[in-house]
Design goal:
globular, 319 residues, 9-stranded mixed β-sheet, 22% strand, 10 helices, homodimer, alpha+beta, Glutamine Phosphoribosylpyrophosphate, subunit 1, domain 1
């Protein structure tokens, strides 16, 4: 007899973490609280029997609403001082998928991605076309100022000045990039993944990273696993990070616990720093990264919320 | 002893072929001539020892310039009567990649994709940001009228009227979509793939299909294969068509001749009609499709140009 599927949820708030030495107690506590709020939003649904798709949507919405993380409110700026957000969602049951790229308007880009999946013939819509579609779906829109934060504007300013001066890039991961994401397994055994990001600080206008590329930054298939990535997106795209993990499960007989860290280690050899969260049909979620840290958390059937930022032990709290 | 690598080139002009019954002799001959021109453009380079990357670029440029095919000149229209082109190129040697999406301006979108790969930190640029980057690269731009053709405008009109009338979709593949692409292996054993498209007739503005999604419509890795796809792009994205073929070569011990047709057959069970061309480190190119036809051609070391449209035998001509 096979055990019934046990629900589980994992989240990340990006591999672009503030260095441990620069993280004061208050900021540290705020990040843990933000991660717990996202876990709670998703877990409430999963524990009540809701689909994995709803859990990852709720968890990512919570992270999008929190200005500490680089997605929606708190997104990083492009080189020309604008905001261009990408988001993607995938349903492992039927491998349905939806994504948006280069948008600014919908309060929660992940809802725009979900609307693409559920209510359009497309899997990826970009730019003004994507924004027009989101409006047609009656999603809540916010003015550009809602998404802007002083911290991200300062990061842009620093980076543009550095480029003008031709100085070497000594930025921390936190100044360069970030992403939020969630993966979940529900009681019916369905997997889902969702990812949302503002991209990289001072990115080229129009640049699309790995987030909305299915098989790179976002992926879900009940037969293998659900994956959400964060890091230097270009390398994750070139090496099809997420679908490579799924391929090792499907064709090479590897476990998720073997495949996910191995792929993340390989990406680093190609200059791809970052991490990912993943979940398979059975077993606990896997959270792995090759960077100095990754804002992350998970919760399984005992309901205990686990959160961590660097390579320390997980902080736990009962949900 | 292993034989030295033998150069080979395959191209497609899209799985959206005109039905055999509607293809008069003149139009038939024009399509074969267009395919031969593209093969010749690529083969001249390969036979002279040029890299696979240059061969696929030249072959795709020839198809982009030919108004018979749905890429650049002759691209299909969006639902709001505009042109939004996608193109991608990938170098199997170092898995470098570059793509553009939703652009109208560069005479050859594949050159914009190649510039993204070679001269930007990004792998994918979309919309006005991509066009601005292409201008910065001094690429040749053409006015929108250069790309427009009466045939594609008539297809848009028919489709919009059909939607207004709520009539069933009885369009042929040729009226719906199309793509051009090339894969090559050079004498050094390097693989490359390139794809370019106008997308689907009457597509949602902002819609991005599988063409610029590495691992879906375009892929190259010397260790496995180079792939260029054509068809209902959304299904190719959801099932990561190209990287699934590569995964079967890498992890399941399959040959390209086994994996490529198997994946194309599986895509059809999910509503994905279309086809692909692919080439591995050894052996002839594989050209496979589940649709009624696919404009296609290939040339190997004997220099004979093979072209076909439906399921007939290849027409041959000495290069």
């Amino acid at each position: 007899m096979h055990d019934p599927h046990t629900p589980a949820l994992a989240i990340h708030g990006g591999a672009g973490t503030i260095p441990k030495s620069a993280l004061d107690d208050k900021t540290l506590a705020a990040h843990h609280a933000g991660l717990r709020a996202a876990l709670t939003a998703g877990w409430c649904l999963l524990a009540a029997g809701a689909p994995a798709l709803d859990a990852v949507t709720a968890a990512v919405m919570a992270l999008e609403d929190d200005p500490l993380f680089n997605a929606a409110r708190g997104a990083v700026f492009t080189a020309d001082g604008r905001l261009e957000m990408d988001a993607a969602i995938m349903d492992g049951k039927a491998r349905r998928a939806g994504a948006v790229a280069g948008i600014c308007g919908p309060k929660n880009p992940i809802l725009a991605a979900r609307a693409v999946m559920e209510n359009s013939p497309a899997v990826l819509l970009a730019g003004t076309g994507a924004e027009a579609f989101a409006r047609s779906q009656n999603l809540v829109f916010m003015p550009e100022t809602y998404f802007q934060t002083e911290r991200r504007r300062a990061s842009l300013s620093l980076e543009l000045n550095r480029r003008l001066a031709g100085a070497p890039d000594t930025r921390t991961d936190a100044d360069r990039h970030g992403t939020v994401g969630a993966v979940a397994r529900d009681a019916a055994g369905n997997l889902a993944a969702a990812t949302s990001t503002g991209g990289m600080t001072a990115k080229l206008p129009g640049r699309i990273g790995d987030t909305p590329i299915f098989g790179a930054g976002t992926y879900a298939d009940n037969a293998t696993c659900a994956v959400s990535c964060t890091g230097t997106g270009e390398v994750f795209v070139r090496f099809t990070a997420a679908s490579e993990i799924a391929a090792r499960l499907r064709h090479a007989g590897q476990s998720l616990a073997q495949a996910a860290p191995a792929v993340i280690a390989e990406l680093l050899t190609h200059g791809g720093d970052g991490g990912l969260i993943a979940i398979a049909a059975d077993g606990p979620p896997v959270l792995t990264f090759n960077s100095t840290g990754m804002y992350r958390g998970y919760v399984t059937s005992d309901g205990i919320l686990h959160t961590a930022i660097h390579r320390e032990d997980f902080t736990t709290q009962i949900s």
